[in-house]
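2024-03-11 09:14:02 DEBUG pipeline.ingest accepted 1 chain
2024-03-11 09:14:02 DEBUG pipeline.ingest length=221
2024-03-11 09:14:03 DEBUG pipeline.predict start
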Amino acid sequence: MGQRKASRDGDRKVGRRALLIGGTVAAAGSAVLARDELARLWWRTPGVEKPRKEGEVDYAGARWVAASEANWRRADRPDDYGIDMVVVHVTQGSFDSAVKAFQDPGHRAAAHYIVGQDGRVAQMIRELDVAYHAGNRDYNERSVGIEHEGFVDRPQDLTDEMYEASARLTARICARYDIPVDREHIIGHVEVPGTDHTDPGQHWDWEKYMRLIRRARTSPA
């Protein structure tokens, strides 16, 4: 947990794909096609966002608990920033203390999800948005961050219930964004360039975790 303050970039530029589509539509000269494309892409206009529902979660097994708006940046992922990575964290504290920290505007960091030792999952930031969790702006923009309740030097904190719940969550994230289930795309915080963090630590069982993710990918949602 924790990172230096991330800068905000509130401008929303129309993506290259949207411009290309717009050019194709104009060339086609079809009013119907243009109307349909504009209806589908209206939210790409600067200052316009995708429709959102308060309290909506991206993962059905999660409970919504909102993080402070100071700890993340509004975005329209994966359209403005592609998502191709999951970053695994350990909280260095309890589930409740992590929630409290992410709700504190002075903390200036938060992950999208927290997974408890009992298997409960809280979503605190929409996957649409950029969470300040990795300590690296590029990695923040391209990843989903998952915190796990416990301490890196206490292997007993890494329960089967937590591994299994986290693996199901990561499997759904990977399926949603077509992220390969491998160690190049599912990484620990310690592996983020420039970070001074050591989590998830030497006791995190990567072989077990990856096996559970692959099993969850092939199971019914």
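2024-03-11 09:14:41 DEBUG pipeline.report The CA atoms of residues 117 and 156 lie 10 Å apart.
2024-03-11 09:14:41 DEBUG pipeline.predict end
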